[in-house]
Specification:
The structure is a single chain. By secondary structure, the protein is mainly alpha-helical. The chain has one domain. The chain is 68% helix and 3% strand. It has 21 helices and 3 strands. A 3-stranded antiparallel β-sheet has the order 1-3-2, covered by helices on one side. Helix 7 runs antiparallel to helix 14. The longest helix is centred in the first third of the chain and has 29 residues. It is globular. The two termini are 33 Å apart. The relative contact order is 0.11.
Length: 423
């Protein structure tokens, strides 16, 4: 077990080196490091987020962004320290993915090595964004839930949501699962823990600056349909059919589209997202096994990426643990779909990003294909949720197809069993 872990971490380190020095994985011509660096400097000098420095993310994003700046906020120093910080987060995600595979009756080795190979699927965007921080918190929350610590798990999901909002969506299937497995009272207690963490984070933000906090919320709500989203692909198709013009617009630190039907399409996508979340929650409650919880919870991140009006390339980072675990469970179609979506994103970003902004047909087709694959991931996840949970995932020895050897010996030897039993 230790050997597999060390080898997987070695694979991860090699992949990380590729994102720093090996083309095409090292392509970072479009990244957020400049934005992070401009924020980290003032925060480390004592400025408060929302009041003294604009922060478009939830409050716990501030330490996740500023921490690497302790080693320097110059361009090269911050680039190197942020790469080291995200490598540490990636290692945590690899270990947590392996632990979840063992908990849910999958192959720990397959999960470890697949998660370790993610730098080759995503390239440099994995180390130039802080999205691995909320992913790690989400995986830790799921591990706590699988271990029977529902209140801790929901509190950790709250911490993840205060880092970047998408882990909050996982609370819907998680609470439905807890209610089905442990009863409504335990689900209410877990929901209270989630609410307490969220309330504390919101209180901190409001204490720093009420107006700045509301500006951050308004910033997200008023963003136009982003050029890489499924909604943008639909608006482009409407434009091609002569049903209104899709006009590029640059605002809110991203490139978007304006179209007469943009509001309607965004609202429809949001409604569809709510429906998908409800389906995932119902499926998790109907078959409340550990594997069903993990699939449903991780699929919510894919749902947000596939159906939200904004789809930044780094959102694909949220889907990677689902792909690694799917391979560990031998859900090969689901694992392949996640991998294809990540690869298509790497092919298009950042190398063809400006072709996309310029509305070049090849780039538009590539992004539309990726968005369709993400929708396919959702369909495959829902299909996987309908299957009976594997016997290994229901075992009192999570991650094993058979009981430990000591337990089998005790079962064969009644006298030995009586000698080793308490009392």
């Amino acid at each position: 077990m230790r050997r597999d872990t060390l080898l997987a971490l070695g694979v991860l380190a090699a992949g990380w080196a590729a994102t720093l020095w090996l083309v095409p994985f090292s392509d970072e011509r479009v990244n957020d490091l400049f934005v992070y660096r401009q924020l980290a400097g003032p925060l480390l000098d004592g400025a408060l987020p929302y009041r003294d420095a604009f922060l478009e993310y939830p409050p716990l994003a501030a330490p996740a962004i500023a921490l690497p700046g302790l080693l320097g906020t110059g361009a090269e120093a911050f680039r190197a320290s942020f790469a080291g910080w995200t490598l540490l987060l990636a290692a945590v995600c690899v270990l947590l993915t392996g632990a979840l595979a063992a908990r849910t009756g999958g192959s720990r080795r397959a999960a470890l090595f697949t998660a370790a190979a993610t730098p080759l699927l995503c390239g440099a965007m994995l180390r130039t964004h802080f999205d691995l921080a909320p992913v790690a918190l989400t995986l830790l929350a799921l591990l706590a839930l699988c271990a029977g610590r529902a209140r801790v798990g929901l509190a950790l999901l709250g911490a993840g949501a205060l880092t970047k909002g998408f882990p909050l969506l996982a609370a819907a299937p998680a609470l439905a699962w807890v209610a089905a497995r442990n009863g409504r009272r335990e689900a209410l207690a877990a929901a209270a823990c989630l609410g307490a963490v969220l309330a504390a984070g919101c209180a901190l933000a409001l204490a720093a600056s009420p107006s700045g906090s509301f500006d951050a919320v308004r910033f997200q709500l008023e963003r136009p349909v982003q050029v890489e989203s499924s909604s943008a692909s639909l608006l482009t198709a409407l434009d091609g059919l002569g049903l209104g013009q899709a006009a590029p617009v640059s605002s809110h630190r991203s490139d978007g589209l304006e179209h007469p039907a943009a509001g309607f399409v965004a609202a429809g996508s949001a409604a569809l997202l709510v429906i998908v979340l409800a389906l995932l929650a119902v499926a998790a409650a109907r078959r409340p096994g550990a594997r069903q919880l993990v699939i449903a919870a991780l699929a919510t991140g894919t749902a947000f990426a596939a159906l939200g009006k904004v789809l930044s390339p780094q959102f694909l980072i949220w889907t990677l643990p689902l792909g690694a675990l799917a391979l560990a469970w031998r859900e090969y179609a689901l694992a392949a779909a996640v991998g294809v979506a990540a690869l298509l994103t790497q092919v298009g970003f950042p190398a063809r990003y400006f072709d996309l902004v310029a509305r070049e047909p090849a780039a538009l087709t590539l992004v539309a294909a990726r968005d369709l694959v993400l929708l396919g991931v959702l369909g495959l996840a829902l299909r996987a949720l309908r299957r009976p949970e594997a016997a290994a995932a229901r075992s009192p020895w999570p991650g094993r197809l058979r009981p430990p050897r000591s337990a089998r010996r005790s079962a064969r030897d009644p006298l030995r069993r009586s000698r080793t039993s308490p009392g």
